[in-house]
Amino acid sequence: MKRLHAYLLLMRPANIVTSIADVLAGIAISGILSLSAAIPMADVIWLCISTIGLYGGGIVFNDVFDFEIDKVERPERVIPSGRISLKEATGLGTGLLAMGIIAALLVNNTAFVLAILTATAALVYNRWGKHHSLLGPPNMGLCRGLNLLLGVSILPAMVFDLWYIAIVPIIYISAITMISRGEVHGSDRKPLYFAALLYGLVILMILGFAWDRQKLLIAIPFLLGFAFMVYRPLLKAIQQPTGSAIGKSVKAGVIALILMNGAWAAAAGHWILAVLIVLLLPISLWLSKQFAVT
């Protein structure tokens, strides 16, 4: 049980729940729920399994590549503390990424390509991107953007029509990644103010999507919840930009992706699925108390 717990610590289950929400939102955006044909539940399940593997594998490799840094800055983490060896963690991450790619292949070729691109983007970020102040944040955001499109790929042709929606999570995750660099030693206020502006831009873009589909009133309640969840800790971090306050803001930003995805589903006109997505929030919050988010 201790070893299983250590593996779960590496995978950050609370975050994985948010990646499932990405895929469900993408499925809603694809328009498949509006078709008269039966929903291919097998494809929905495979896409959820795919994102679990891709996100889990990417998170594991984050700690694999940070091993030397964590030995100094965060020696309590799973790998530097010796609970899981570097070799075991590498094997776990490789297996999870492979699972994500294979599961996507069982859906269609478009999902397969998106899965490969997501895994590649995650590895590039973990190995090089995170150390680049300019390219790192959008690199991490690209992983989430591709994950959203992974859900859309349930209708392959729609990926080419709706590719632009990936810009929203790229902007949002760029903001979170940017401020997360102050989690250990604190930060000045400039990146926090910039993140606040980017959060606002994200909300406006989803509002625009909802307006275009005449679903504005349905999306607004979800966006209000999202705004409250991300801005409250961010404003506290701006007032006192310590590592602890910034860490809480980052944690809230990651988990708030569930509310953002609920807003996406509502903006696409599928409020029932939007509610089901939001119901993932208490699960993610509970898991965040058991396992680290960042």
Automatic annotation (TrEMBL):
Gene behind the chain: eboC
Keywords of the record: Cell membrane, Membrane, Transmembrane, Transmembrane helix
Pfam family, one: UbiA
PANTHER family reported for this sequence: CHLOROPHYLL SYNTHASE, CHLOROPHYLL SYNTHASE, CHLOROPLASTIC
Source domain of life: Bacteria
Identification of the protein by name: UbiA-like protein EboC
Organism, scientific name: Albibacterium profundi
Location within or outside the cell: Membrane
Protein topology in the membrane: Multi-pass membrane protein
InterPro entries from the UniProt entry: Prenyltransferase_related, UbiA_prenyltransferase, UbiA_sf
